[in-house]
Structure formats: C-alpha cells, structure tokens
Amino acid sequence: MCQYLIKSTMSFQTLLYSHFGKKSLQLRETLLLLSMGHMFALFNPNQVAQSLSIPVANLYRHLKGFSLYRWKCLFVRVGCSIALQEGRDTESKSDATKSRRRPTISVDGTNDPRYGKLLSYCFSWWSKKHNTSIRGRNVLAITIKIGSMIIPLNIRIVSKQGRGNTDKPSYFIAMLKEILDFFDTSGVDLRKYPITFDSWYGSQQLLQILSDMGFDTKLVHGKSNYVMDIENENVKLSQHKKRIELHPARWGCDKPHYRTHATSKTFVSLVLLFFLDMGKTRTMMVFGKSGRSCEILKIWSQHHGIEQFWRYLKTDLKLSKMSLAGRQGAYASLGVKVMSSLLGQHLSRLTHKTFYQGQLELSGQRHILFTLIEHFHEQIPTKRL
What we know:
Transposase Inhibitor Protein From Tn5, Chain A, domain 1, 14 helices
C-alpha cells in the first residue's frame, strides 16, 4: 500500500506543479500532506500536526497564502485535467467500451451544516434530509462520471449575499463556461456528452441556454406537480403516473418503463420516460436528442455519481470536520477535501480497494507518514514547517 500511495502522491504533485509552478511550493506540499492524511483518518490540520509533531500554525498559514481566485482555479484545472486524460483514453477505445463508460455530466448541490460565527458563506438553506431549514453552506458542483471515475470539474460555494445576489442557475452557467473554455483550449468538445439535472433545475430558460451552448442531450428529473399534455389529457405528472401502464423490462432496460411524447406551457415539447425505481414511478424529461429508453436509463443511472461524490466528501472525508475562517478559509477546507477525493480514487484504481478498505489498512500505521513525506517533499516538514 505504501508504494501505491507514493505513486499517487507523486502524480498529483506533478499535476499541481504543471498548473501552479514554483511560487506555491509550500501550499502544494501542504495540500498534498493534508490530502494524504485522510487515508490515515486524519481529517483536519490539527490532527495531522499532532500526529507528525509539527506546528499547526504553519499549515494554516500556508493554506491562507492561496488567494480566493487561485482556489477556484484549482477546482477547474485539477479536475478538468484528470477528466481530459480519462476522456481521451475513453475515445481511443472501442465503441463497446465507450458505451460502458458513457461519460455523463451531472449538476447538483448539497448542504453542509455549519454553525460557527466566524465561518463565511453560512446561510439558512432548505434541507431535504431534515425537512426544514438549516444553517450551513450550500455547495454546487459539476461532475463528470466516466466509467467508475467520478471527477469534479468545478465547485462553488453559493452565497445569498453580494453585489449581484447571484442565483444558483447563474452560478452554474458561469461555472460551465469555465469548464468549456478549458476543454475548448485543449481541443476537446465536452458538449457531445449528455448533461443531467435533478428537478430543481427544470426551467425553459436554462435549457435554452444549454441548447445555445451546443449541448444536444439534456435530462431533467420531473416533478410530480408539473402539468403535461399526454394524449390530449392535460394534468399533473402525478395523475399521469396513475393511469399509464409500464412495460415490463425489455432488452437493454433493467426496469419497467413507458416512453412517450408530451407538451407543456413551460417546456413546450419533450420526451417523457416513466420508469419504476425502488418501488416508485419516476419521470425523466428528455430534451434535444432523446435516444432509446435503454439509453435514457443508462444516462440517468450515471447521475447517481454526483450523489456518490457528495456522500464521499461528507461521510468518508468528513467535510464538516475542517473549518477555517473567512472566504479563503471556506474554499481552502473544501479544496483539501476535493483533492483528497481525487487522491483516494486514484489510489483505489491502483490497489483495487475501496477508500474505506485502504483507510482501515493504514489507520493504525500513521508512522508511515514520515516515510512518505521524504518521497514527495523536498524537505521534511519538521525542518521546514
């Protein structure tokens, strides 16, 4: 396990160096150290410093040395660089492999409960889990799932205050433009991949903007209170679900489903796919290139990747256990967790073990950290930090 961890860390060191150069040497090494610490169940700078007997103040100082702009650049450049490499590898494979991996872009947000008075971006947000408003941060992410890899392309902490009072759809469009600029510069067209949303993002304006950008396939989970006209019956989707008859699972489709065309005042014309999922009839709204039922179900199954990403950050990497004051501190704590998730995925691919299995193997061997530091740090932290 130790040699695989060294290999993963060295690859990320090279990636960070290629985008941020020598000026951020201390920040890069601190970021790698904190990210690697998660494999040993060390989830914040205090735990890492205590384990290695180094001054924790230096770790915090190095993290705060990175500007807010550079933290935002970090999310785009690191995630997109990895996705670019995975995408090119997928394109070089056979059609069967491309179909199995099926790169899919997904958009979703999550609430991170926070209660500290000195923490930035903390507002009241509605929580589905608690079925009430909670105080915390709302984090919006765009990810791409390629096979089993779930790669965050861009992440933002949503604010309810500021000069423009920007809403989440506007945040999303700005984030997507940054991603497209990166891929266009590299000569890769990201628009050919399908993009998926949950029901919160269902709006004709947003779908039109995506169409103008060049996205051909857009999938949105349908709300039960949407009014749709199907076969001259104009009622809510909840009423349509009661009268339709789902076809049994057919070739290529692992779930009972019913595909039809519909119209509405909000979305004009679209394709609807009703399908049975965990005992409930759900609805998928498809815009642009519709495809067959099996293709729609396959694309939507990829959307679960972003839910896995959030669960990974919040449950395995303990997102709420790292708290830094100020706007830069908010993005620094998020940046460490994102780097940890990417490092963990890379290590899982090398060892064929899950993050939890690797953590169990290493959690009782924290002394290995001293050995690892000598391999990827130019100086041992006890001498420099």
